[in-house]
Amino acid sequence: MTTFGERLTKLRESKNLSQAKLAKMAGVPQSTIAQIETGRNKSTKRIIELAEALDTTPNYLLNGVKDLSVVPVSSEIGSYSDKNISNDIGAYVKIPYYDISLSAGIGNATWIVRDTSDRLLFRESWLQRRGLDESSLKAMYVRGESMEPLLYDMDTILLDINDLEIVDGSVYAIIFKNRLYIKELRNSEDGIAIISYHRDYETMHVTQETYDQFKVLGKMVWRGG
Q1: CB 220 within 8 A of CB 181
Q2: Which domains does the chain have, with CATH numbers?
Q3: pLDDT at 37 exceeding the cut of 70
Q4: pLDDT, the chain, mean
Q5: Rounded Cα gap, residues 101 and 109, in angstroms
Q6: 122 forms bridges with which residues in the sheet?
Q7: Where in the numbering of this chain does the HTH cro/C1-type domain appear (predicted)?
Q8: Residue 71, pLDDT score
Q9: CB atoms < 10 A from the CB of 209, how many?
Q10: Sorting pLDDT into bands at 50, 70 and 90, what band is 87?
Q11: Using 50, 70 and 90 to split pLDDT, how confident is the model at 117?
């Protein structure tokens, strides 16, 4: 995987920008660009400005994670540590990453904030246009290959935990038989189909007999990889 400095250099050179020109566009000293590209500086408070100057996202520059959704534009999303967020980002909201702890009983799913300072950042305007409430959004990592090629191992998804109504073809975080899944759901005559995208994984079915072992935790509203 490439480093922050390598990604910055590649994007800068692809746009035929000198370090001095990029520094001027982002409002940082040229020495800052040089230090990032040589690996001496791992972060900057002007990451948003750098990303916008390079037509990318803060999340990609810092973490190598590309926005895979079609809706957010580059200036509307980012991801970086709290310690690197300047006080003037204004209209951004920070969404923590979570793990889910399962215990006996279908209702016992606990959201646990990951022990990291990383946050996904979205502009408030992006949330508002989509009717999303910051307090109901949770970011998490995808594990496994069952949803390839839509989602790959360690891709990031954003869930709306208040959107629990099943819409055919949408992707949800669910519990089924005391296991956590990220799957496409579809209503069927016999119940609910739990669909994987990878051809090696068979569709599971929630029937009347197993419905009490099924729970929707939230709908995927954004994905990044």
Answers
A1: no
A2: 1-56 (1.10.260.40), 57-224 (2.10.109.10)
A3: yes
A4: 84
A5: 6
A6: 77, 93
A7: 8-61
A8: 38
A9: 8
A10: very low
A11: low
In angstroms, how far is CA 170 from the centroid of its own chain? 16
Which amino acid would we find at residue 22? L
The confidence score (pLDDT) of residue 67 equals 65
- 170: pLDDT strictly greater than 90: yes
What CA–CA distances, in Å, run from 201 to 69, 219, 221? Answer: 24, 21, 23
Return the percentage of the chain with pLDDT > 70, whole number. 84
Specify the pLDDT at position 128: 86
Distance between alpha carbon 35 and the CA centroid of its chain, in Å? 28
pLDDT tops 90 at residue 108: no
pLDDT at 106 (0 to 100): 57
DSSP the chain: ---HHHHHHHHHHHTT--HHHHHHHHTS-HHHHHHHHTTS----TTHHHHHHHTTS-HHHHHH-PPB--SS--GGGEEEEEGGG--TT--SEEEEEBEEEEE-SSTT-EEEEE-SS-EEEEEEHHHHHHTT--GGGEEEEE--SSTTTTTS-TT-EEEEETT--S--TT-EEEEEETTEEEEEEEEEETTEEEEE-SSTTSPPEEE-TTTGGGEEEEEEEEEEE-
User: Regarding beta strands 171-176 and 179-188, do their DSSP bridges make them parallel or antiparallel, or are they unpaired?
Assistant: antiparallel
